[in-house]
Amino acid sequence: MERTDPDNAGDEARRGVGAGANRADGADGADRAASGAGGGVGPARPAAGAHRGVPASAARAMTTFSAADLEKQRGVRRMKLTATGLLLFVALVYVLAKWAENSGAGAWAGYVAAASEAGMVGAMADWFAVTALFRRPLGLPIPHTAIIPTKKDQLGVSLGEFVGENFLSQDVVRQRLRAVGIGSRLGAWLAEPQHADRVTAELSAALRGAMTVLRDSDVQAVVGEAITRRADAQEIAPGIGKMLEKVVADGGHRRAVDLVVTRAHDWLVWHDNEIMDAVQGGAPGWTPRFVDKKVGERVYKELLRFVTEMRDMPSHPARGALDRFLTDFASDLQSDTDTRARVERLKGEVLGRGEVQDLIASAWTAVRSMIVSAAEDERSQLRLRVRASLLSLGARMAVDEKLQRKVDGWVEGAAVYVVTTYRKEITSLITDTVAGWDAEHTTRKIEAHIGRDLQFIRINGTVVGSLVGLLIYTVSRALGA
């Protein structure tokens, strides 16, 4: 029955796919239908644009027929048979009407013949128009036919330009996003505890992933360099001087002094023999031994008395002298050029030591471990605070119109930047994808999806042509009468 259809005349025989498509059923049928010329013998040809970076899935989508595609194709064939059957019917009516007219059946035969003749003309004209979209009618090289297979790439370019001009323009993007009201919707969504929990979990996973990807050596080098550069760029003596001045003024250093003199007193008590031996060992060799011993005991007792009095007397003169020394030193750190220069040299020497650099570098390891542990623990302060912040932000965004407008502005700005900056890349995705489709398989798949509706054009053309022919014949007879 397919051979009686003008759509398939010479074309199915040339492609050799008709029989294979009729036998196709399910996935096996899809493979046979996608195999192309030769009735499915041999592997399917690769997509034409595979070398152009078109995703393989996009190429496969247009070179394989699914079960749904095959069902649609069968529906197209049924509609083709219906349209062709109607054409044959009006042709038969025309033959019978002309026979009746020539046999003197009456005037009615002329009306029927005119209507059926115009119906045949309309049907054939619409058949040609529909067929010319997908293939060359009757296999003849008629200009401006087989539009889809021959103009596929140009259609892809036009589609990309259409999308770019009408969907990726700045005004369209802003208008659409403004109508959505992302700020208020996002706020209402975040205000729900389960949604805040989900976002917190996703952020924690992303944070853990980032900590895993980062190499410790790189981060340690960056942190060490940043700290060293920051320390080198800023003089520390004035800041230390101001801090020391405030500490002395508030009496904050007195506890440190108390601790030092207490520990010094205890040390003297525990090491009395060692101190006296050290004093005796430093005496001249010509002095008698008992004299050295007396001197050592005397020095030890005076030293112990001094430390004891300093520990027990808050108003001890040594404490006052220490207060004045610290006050003067704080002032020198802020104003004395030589003191400040010596502090800067000491700072450079300290930062340049390997031990200090190792300490700075090891700080990152401790920080990373702490962050990863907090991100993994659902009850950690980090995750609890993030969750609380998200809930608070969502509640504010749900009711604060000013904040909503600000969020909408951020989203609109980001979207506009993306579409204006990468519009060419986005439209080229459409163009390259269409260019990567195989022309024959693309034609067959498009026909399977829209061919059934196009066959109604043929049916309508037959009916409308018949009515117009009848009207013209009637008007002509009326004017001629």
TrEMBL record:
| Highest taxon of the lineage | Bacteria
- What is the organism field in this record? Streptomyces gilvifuscus
| The protein's name | DUF445 domain-containing protein
Residues spanning the signal sequence? none
User: For the region Disordered, what residue ranges are annotated?
Assistant: 1-53
Composition-biased stretches, type Basic and acidic residues, lie in: 1-15
Task: Indicate, by first and last residue, each region the UniProt record lists as having compositional bias (Low complexity).
Answer: 43-53
Question: Coiled-coil ranges per the record?
Answer: none
For this UniProt entry, which segments traverse the membrane?
A: 81-97
Q: Which UniProt keywords apply?
A: Membrane, Transmembrane, Transmembrane helix
